[in-house]
Amino acid sequence: MQARHEIDIHFARHDERQKLAGITCRRPSVNDDVTVLATVGPFPLPMLGQASAECTRLLNVAVRYGKHGLVDRESLSVRIAVIEESEIGAALFHRYVATVLEESPIADLILESVQMYLAKHRRIQAAADALLIHSNTLRYRLEKYTSITGADLTDTEAIIEVWWALEYWRVRRDGVSQAGQLAQGTGP
Question: How confident is the model at residue 71 (pLDDT cuts 50, 70, 90)?
Answer without folding.
Answer: confident
